[in-house]
Design brief:
The complex is a heterodimer of chains A (about 375) and B (about 900). Chain A is of the alpha/beta class. In chain A, about 45% of the residues lie in helices and about 15% in strands. Chain B folds into four domains: about 375 residues, no CATH class; about 100 residues, no CATH class; about 90 residues, no CATH class; about 150 residues, no CATH class. The chains are: A alpha/beta (about 375), B alpha/beta (about 900). Chains A and B meet through helix 3, helix 4 and strand 11 of A and helix 18 and helix 19 of B.
Chain lengths: ~375, ~900
């Protein structure tokens, strides 16, 4: 039986059905439309909706009536961010202010996820993105030239290739700058004038050599705390950003909810007829949380691994376990599947993390396995895998 | 116009089952009552402002305030111009006749009556304080009308027959009341609106009001008797005021959920504090409606069990009695109380509870902003006394809108003092952010929560818990402030000062008072008087009252064997009284002050096993059993969390001392054993973390190593694995590149006979063959060895001397000069007898069989030669005589 599609997941017509991953503004277009139709608050210039509507889009929980494709529908707004709601409020306010927004946190805490949804709701597009890497240059951030045409015609505005930044500035939209601290410092600093003057100078053009940002333009950058100290932002750039730290989810109930929801969505995307039984999700999130915190629910201190044990990793393990169960197992995800796929998540860069996992399994999982079949299977499989 | 807090739409939105018409009717009925009721929240500047206006408008002839009725005599002192808030009414009840049957449960022994203290703090902007001052200025009569706190204490009923709680007990005695105390809420809830909602007497009223802090005395009884425990808990956590009832109410919970309030403070500030109202009457009406809706969705049984109903009965009776005595009409009076109480049950004719007989002591004490802040753990405090003081000051100055900028500047100033680089541009960004956040959150004006969020967003470049720690501390400093109050000297002695003198008299230490003479006191703690004196003096010393000092090692230092004996020196000075007055901020007695101070330290040091263990020792020395238990639990956590070798070793040392002490006390228990093993194991594992510590930390690492080695060597604890220690020390010796530490690690192993002393000599010998730059480290190596070695040096002296000799022979002059200071330092560490012993062996090695001591030459050389010649002649003569 085909799964019933709710409003939020209705794909756009035509070729989009074939797209592996749709951007937020497409995936949640009905929600965005419903929020716009019900939005009575004023929106800042060039914003597609008011700050309150943006907040409602990210936090979800409401059902709105809206006319979609000529039909009046009840559109439920799904929850897209789990954690402290004030983080989203602070982020939205920052984007409406003079300063740019830098989302910082451990890997897998949902920085890019939040950035994408904010851009989709505020600017109607989340695709004006610069991906920061060690190879990112100033041209990626500002503009470049069609060299062949420059040789033939000399520099003129039609030969200029605008960067996503320039497009965002010209149209009053949000620029997403992913992993900004991966860029070299001098490249990062090309943002200083963009954020302070709100303009880009094009000295090659004799006339019209400035591009000014329209109201609504701002930058949402993300940075990984694990990269801190690698390419630290300069003081000048730091003060042009408001930092918002996104913590790792520590609430067990919330983490279970996130893993359930996200894993379910992804499995649906892969057309996987596999379900993740709640006790298995419970086990998975318990292992992740306890290893992350270095302390179990029973008060046993355990070592922490050097790698980040984020909720995103837990979702990834759940999906891998489901794929394994679907193609190589009996079709139902069990503790064994979780155990097999978990080792690679915990032990990544440092071989000493193997000892960390072993300690946890021997001290904690073994004892629980005396009473619980899932924990026993988990214990046995992990030990067999790391022998 | 100000939109109302409660409307049909808002109730529907929040999904609250409440009949708005009934609530409106109840509120209107109370607001139109002949007696003028003014609902208040403690420490609310906006309430204080409106109350001030209401008193000016109404000019009442008498004001009734929800405050401790047993302290009415103190009102003139409270309103004295010489009294400066923050101050608190301190009231205590001593159950001399054991009428509550709690002696031995809430006191150390059955023959010691329990004492129940409570504090009622007042700030400059507390509505009650403003009302008291206005009454004093206008010559209006004023009375506190609340039930004394000790009338709410549940007597202990030993057998199962007793019912939980005094109030429940009373209610069940009256058949007509039993049905009233079921789980139905009072009025306004739609389910009951059909039967008389709106009828007089059904009015549900409760509200926010002055909330005293209360603390029961510590208990020395370690019995686990469940009845006793229940009685203890019940009477230690008396709930004051009615704010907790509002917070628990379905109305508030739904409201908070819909509006996204993270705390009641945020809700209050959004709805009533940081908001302008068209008139005082509208303000009064809004708070009354809020409280009425809260009470309407609160179960009556809850109000019975927490004493609210009893208090209302008492307050009503007090009001009518005073009015009768003064011959005034209700319309000439004003009642200032928590809004919850406005909607008391007028049909309830039950008498208030009787007041237990005992010794009641009331006074006014200086208080501090920190004490009244929630950070101090005072449940009924305000979260930011200085912030609200600022709100009050600016409101008085008629510029309330400046609060955001003023507070931001205050926080940034504090942050700059803490080394944060924050500019005016940051202040502007925070101001803009605060304003926008408050609008996004639908508030009329920014509240403190918006300010905090904006400060974190704009000024913290990273994780608030790491990069933002200095900023968070600055926020706390600006929010809380540091003001300390003053009490008029006309009032007399403070309770803590009184307690001090009572103790001095009881412990027969009065002879030291008022004299400049020093008194030496030898205490044997096995003697009951000695034990009590020791406890008291430890408490004084810890509380920094400059009366006493302990000479020699602290008690419990088992290395000196002075576990039970202490030597104290006592000397009186005027500074003693001054310190006692300061101590009053921490408690009303020396004991409670020591408890408060130690609690504060425990909180600050909770992550350090070493410091926490020392606090445990202090708690034992000061005989604070409750804190001993709490500290043990805390220590258990800090041992689990602390990974620092030195700290863990310090904790282990302290635990071993405590273990000895408990053996003497015959009160050892399994928890301690378990802690010792865990601390020992973790210390051993942590040794590898100190193989490369900087020179400044090396001495304390060595001290910790020696302490751990002593524990491992004693062998009186079977569960401590000696091999675990030696295995890790061996690993550390192999891993370290620091010569001093290598020497120390190997020295410890040698001392434990885990390696032969010859191996130490081999290390020195190897250095003799090394290049000069390595050879010069021999001094550091030997310094490390000597720092930890005792007997093993002497046992292996021969080989060590030979190795050092080899080293010195191989060493050139310049390298020798480099290693000399450390080499000398190394030998200076040795005991003089050990040094002599080594010197003898050196002498023997060089053929000087009689290595006599070298005496300083105090005579001329020629005289010395003569003496030597005579000495030789005498020796020859004696030889001839066969002597």
């Amino acid at each position: 039986m085909a799964a019933k599609k709710d409003e939020k997941s209705q794909p756009v017509e035509g070729a989009d059905d074939e797209v592996l991953r749709q951007p937020s503004e497409i995936l949640y277009r009905n929600e965005i439309e419903a929020l716009k139709q019900n939005d009575s608050d004023p929106a800042p210039k060039h914003w597609h909706m008011s700050p309150r509507a943006v907040l409602a889009f990210v936090l979800g929980g409401k059902t709105l009536k809206a006319k979609i494709d000529g039909k009046t529908l009840d559109v439920p707004i799904s929850k897209k961010f789990y954690g402290d709601d004030t983080i989203v409020e602070r982020a939205i306010v920052t984007l409406a202010s003079e300063r740019a927004l830098l989302l910082v946190g451990e890997p897998g805490t949902g920085k890019s996820w939040l950035s994408e949804h904010l851009a989709a709701a505020i600017s109607g597009t989340s695709n004006l993105t610069v991906q920061g890497t060690a190879g990112t240059t100033e041209e990626h951030i500002k503009y470049s030239w069609n060299i062949a045409r420059v040789i033939a015609e000399g520099p003129n505005p039609t030969n200029l290739i605008p960067s996503p930044t320039m497009v965002a500035m010209k149209t009053g939209r949000l620029l997403r700058f992913e992993e900004i601290t991966r860029c070299l410092p001098d490249v990062q600093d090309s943002l200083v004038s963009i954020l302070s003057d709100k303009g880009i100078a094009i000295p090659e053009l004799p006339d019209a050599n400035m591009v000014w940002a329209k109201p609504g333009f701002n930058v949402i950058a993300t940075a990984n705390t694990r990269d801190q100290g690698v390419n630290e932002l300069s003081a000048a750039l730091k003060r042009r950003f408001n930092y918002i730290h996104i913590p790792v989810i520590t609430d067990h109930k919330t983490e279970v909810e996130i893993v359930q929801k996200r894993a379910g969505e992804l499995l649906q995307r892969y057309d996987m007829p596999v379900t993740l039984p709640p006790p298995i999700i419970e086990l998975l999130t318990t292992v992740f949380r306890e290893i992350r915190e270095g302390k179990t629910d029973d008060g046993v201190s355990v070592k922490k691994p050097s790698t980040t044990v984020s909720t995103a990793e837990a979702i990834s393990v759940a999906i891998d376990a489901a794929l394994y169960a679907r193609f190589f197992g009996g079709g139902e995800v069990g503790a064994r599947d979780i155990a097999r796929n978990l080792v690679g998540s915990i032990v990544k860069e440092d071989i000493n993390d193997l000892a960390v996992l072993k300690e946890y399994v021997v001290l904690v999982a073994k004892r629980r396995g005396e009473k619980d079949k899932n924990w026993r299977e988990f214990h046995d499989t992990v030990l067999a895998s790391i022998k | 116009m100000t939109p109302p807090v409660i409307s049909d739409k808002s109730l529907e939105k929040a999904g609250i089952n409440l009949d708005i018409d009934v609530v409106k009717a109840r509120v209107q009925q109370i607001l139109e009552d002949e007696l003028y009721w003014f609902p208040v929240r403690h420490h609310s500047p906006n309430v204080a402002l409106h109350l001030k206006q209401a008193i000016q408008d109404r000019k009442p002839k008498v004001i009734f305030i929800e405050g401790p009725s047993q302290a009415n005599d103190l009102i003139p002192f409270l309103t004295s111009r010489k009294t400066k808030p923050p101050v608190a009414i301190y009231t205590s009840f001593r159950d001399d006749g054991n009428v509550l049957n709690l002696a031995g449960i809430l006191s150390p022994a059955e023959d010691i009556p329990p004492v129940f203290p409570a504090w009622y703090p007042f700030l400059q902007y507390s509505p009650e304080f403003v009302a008291l001052q206005m009454a004093a200025d206008r010559g209006t009569k004023v009375f506190f009308i609340d039930l004394p706190h000790y009338a709410r204490i549940t007597p202990y009923v030993p057998e199962k027959a007793h019912v939980d709680g005094l109030s429940d007990d009373r209610e069940s005695e009256d058949g007509s009341r039993v049905n009233r105390d079921d789980d139905e809420s009072e009025v306004g809830a739609k389910a009951t609106s059909g039967d008389g909602a709106g009828a007089p007497g059904d009015s549900p009223v409760s509200g926010t009001e002055p909330e005293p802090s209360y603390s029961a005395p510590p208990n020395d009884n370690s019995s686990d008797d469940s009845d006793n425990e229940k009685a203890r808990k019940q009477n230690r956590n008396l709930e004051f005021g009615s704010e907790h009832l509002i917070i628990e109410s379905q109305f508030y919970q739904s409201l908070a959920s819909v509006a996204g309030y993270r705390s009641f403070d945020e809700a209050w500030d959004s709805l009533f504090e940081m908001r302008k109202f068209d008139s005082t009457e509208m303000y009064r009406q809004e708070i009354a409606a809020f409280c009425c809706a809260s009470r309407a969705t609160t179960r009556r049984s809850r109000m019975v069990s927490d004493g609210t109903i009893d208090r209302e009965r008492f307050m009503r009776k007090s009001i009518s009695t005073h009015l009768q005595e003064l011959g005034l009409k209700p319309s000439e009076a004003m009642v200032i109380c928590g809004g919850f109480h406005l909607f008391y049950d007028a049909e309830d004719k039950e008498s208030p509870p009787s007041i237990p007989q005992g010794t009641v002591y009331n006074t006014i004490v200086p208080y501090s902003y920190f004490q009244v802040s929630e950070l101090s753990g005072y449940a009924a405090g305000t979260r930011a006394p200085q912030f609200y003081q600022r709100v009050w000051d600016l409101s008085i100055a008629n510029r309330p809108e400046d609060i955001v900028v003023e507070h931001i500047v205050a926080v940034l100033t504090e942050a700059r003092k803490k080394g944060q680089i924050l500019s005016s541009a940051d202040a502007i960004a925070v101001s803009q952010h605060t304003d926008m956040l408050s609008r996004l959150r639908g508030r009329a004006m920014p509240v403190l929560d918006d300010l905090h969020d904006a400060l974190i967003t704009c000024c913290c470049k990273g994780d608030p818990k790491e990069e933002g720690l200095a900023l968070l501390r600055a926020i706390d400093a600006a929010d809380i402030g540091s003001s300390i109050g003053k009490v008029t000297p006309d009032l007399g002695q403070l309770p803590v000062v009184k307690d001090f003198y009572q103790n001095m008299e009881a412990l027969e230490l009065n002879e030291v008072l008022g004299k400049e003479k020093r008194l030496k006191l030898d205490i044997d703690k096995r003697d009951p008087l000695g034990e009590r004196r020791s406890v008291f003096l430890h408490r004084l010393r810890f509380s920094e009252v400059p009366l006493c000092a302990m000479s020699g090692p602290p008690s419990g230092d088992f290395s000196t064997g002075k576990i039970f004996r202490e030597e104290w020196h006592l000397k009186w000075s005027p500074a003693v009284e001054a310190a006692l007055i300061d101590l009053n901020l921490y408690g009303d007695s020396i004991e409670s002050a020591a408890v408060s101070k130690l609690r504060k330290l425990l909180k600050a040091d909770e992550r350090s096993a070493g410091k926490t263990s020392r606090h445990l020792l202090r708690a034992i020395d000061m005989d604070l059993p409750d804190l001993v238990k709490a500290t043990e639990e805390l220590l258990s956590q800090s041992i689990d969390n602390d990974v620092r070798f030195v700290s863990l070793a310090q904790a282990l040392t302290a635990l071993m001392v405590i273990d000895r002490y408990f053996v003497y006390r015959n009160s050892r228990h399994g928890v301690l054993d378990e802690l010792i093993v865990r601390c020992y194991d973790r210390s051993c594992f942590a040794i590898l973390d100190v193989v490369a510590v900087p020179e400044s930390d090396q001495e304390e690492v060595v001290a910790a190593l020696v302490a751990l080695a002593e524990v491992a060597q004693q062998g009186d604890k079977q569960s401590l694995d000696r091999n675990l220690f030696t295995e890790h020390v061996r690993g550390a010796a192999a891993a370290t590149t620091v010569p001093f530490l290598k020497g120390a690690f190997l020295g410890v192993l040698s001392e434990l006979r885990d390696i032969d002393p010859v191996e130490l000599a081999n290390e020195v010998s190897a250095l003799a063959k090394a290049p000069p730059d390595v050879m010069v480290t021999a001094g550091d190596f030997l310094d490390g060895v000597m720092a930890v070695s005792r007997t093993s040096i002497i046992l292996g002296a021969q080989s060590l001397i030979a190795a050092i000799d080899e080293l010195l022979r191989a060493c050139q002059w310049n390298p020798f000069l480099v290693m000399l200071p450390k080499m000398r330092a190394a030998f200076e560490r040795m005991h003089i007898s050990h040094r002599d012993s080594l010197a003898t062996r050196v002498a023997q090695m060089y053929g000087l069989e009689e290595g006599g001591s070298i005496a300083e030459l105090n005579i001329s050389t020629s005289a010395a030669v003569t003496v030597a010649r005579i000495d030789k002649q005498v020796a020859d003569i004696m030889k001839d005589w066969n002597l």
